[in-house]
Amino acid sequence: xxxxxxxxxxxxxxxxxxxxxxxxxxxxxxxxxxxxxxxxxxxxxxxxxxxxxxxxxxxxxxx
Length: 63
Known about the structure:
Largest sheet: none
Helix content: 40-55%
Number of strands: 0
Shape: globular
């Protein structure tokens, strides 16, 4: 599986606002990634989510 590479992609205008809970460790790691790559916290979160969804095991998708 290819590793996630954080990119400075353009903003997506098709968005939805949601509140989520995450561990302090995850928050700190995402904040650090955002700062190091010069992108927003939300940008990193969305890239992580898109990467995870694109790389789901086929067994996880079937219901």
